[in-house]
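Work through what follows:
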Amino acid sequence: MSMFSVFFATPKSRKNSLIIGGIAAIILLAGSQFIFSDQQDSTIPTAVAKRGDVVIKITESGELRAQDQVTISAPTDKQILWLKPEGAWVEEGDTLVIFESEKYVISKGEAESNLRIAESQLVRAMSDLEAQRAKEQAARKKYESLLQLAKEGFAVSSEVEQARLNYIELRSKTRSFEAAVNAARANVQRAERQLNQQERKLRMGVVLAPRAGLVVYAPVGNAEDGRKIEVGMIPFEGMDLMYLPDVSSMMVDTQISEVDLFRVRVGMPVKIKLDAYPDAVFDGEVANIADLAKRKISRITGKPTGAKVFDVTVKVIGQDKRLKPGLTATVDIIVNEYKEAIYVPLEAIFIDELDRTIVYVKDAKGNVEPRAITIAESNDRVAVIKEGLSEGEVLLLARPHTL
C-alpha cells in the first residue's frame, strides 16, 4: 500500500477536510514551537561545553598518624614530678619524664639484703653437697674394694651387698643435695634480678628519649574524656605515658564509600591538605584498602549509620615538621586525569524517559534540542563527555518548561 493515498471528496466532505487540515496545521505548528523553541524558557541558565584538563578525584577527610612510633611506658609507679611539654621536639637522650624515687631507695636496700641471704644459703648448700659427695665417694671405694676381695675369697657376699646398698643410698642423697644447691643458686639469681630491677627503677626515675621525635602525651581513662597524663599523677608500672612518632613516615587514615570502591586502587596519587595549614598541599599515595566494609559512624551522634565504607590508608610522601599526628586532613584521591577533554557541569546532565543520558543543546536561534551523549567519567562538579558534544555548544542547566 502506498504511503500517500488519493481520495475524492464531496463539497461537504471537502469543507470538513479543510477544517480538519487547518486544525492539524495548527497542532503541527504548535508542536514545532513546543519542541524546538525555548521562548518560554529564556530564564533557564545555560553553560558552555568546554575543552580542557579535568581531574577526577574522590575527596574525603581523615586524620594524620605516624606509621611507626616508640611508646614510653612508666618504669615505676611513683609520682610524676616533671614532663617534657607535649608537642616539643626532642633528640635522642633528652629528658622526657622525672619521677619521685624515694620508694626505690628503700626497695633497693631490701633487695640487697635478700640477695645476701640467698648467697649465704647457697654457700651452705654447696658445703653440704661437698661433704655428701665425700661420703658417697668413700662408700663407692669401700664397695669396689669388698667386691674385689669377694672375687679373691676374702669377703663374703653379704658384706659386699651391704656395701652396695650403702653406696646406692648415699648416691641418692647426693642427688638431693645437688637439687638443694640448684634451688639455692636459683634463689640467688632471682634475688640478683630483683636487685637489678630495683636499681633500674631507681636509675629510671629519669626517663630519656630513646630516639628523636615529637612528644605526644598518652590518654588517661576514657578517650572521650580527653584527659592526658600530667605532672602530679601516679601512673601504674607499664602504663603508657607518651609516644614519640616517627614523623618521617606519616599516614592519613580515611574512608571511602562502597560506591567508590571500584574506582580506587593501591598506588593512586593523592593530594593532602591540612586544616591547620590550609595553604599547604602535600603529596601522597594510596597505601592500603581494607578488605571488609563497615558501617560509617556519624560524627554528630557517634552511632553507626546505614552507609557502608572501607578504611583506606594514605601514605604521605616526603617529610615536613608541620605533619603532626592527630591533625585533620582532607585527601583528594586522584582517580583519573583527562587532557584536552570536552566537559560540562553536572547540572546540564539529565535522564530521559528512555533512560538515556541527555543534554539540552541550545542553538544560536534559541531552539532547544535534546541530545543523547556518552559520559566517560565525572567528578563532583563536571562530567567528561566521550561522545555527543562539541566544544562551545550551549546547554541548558534545567529541563525546558515546554518539554
Observations:
- The first helix runs from residue 11 to 36.
- The longest strand covers residues 328-345.
- Residues 1-38 have pLDDT under 50 and may be disordered.
- The domain at 72-100+206-245 is CATH 2.40.50.100 (OB fold (Dihydrolipoamide Acetyltransferase, E2P)).
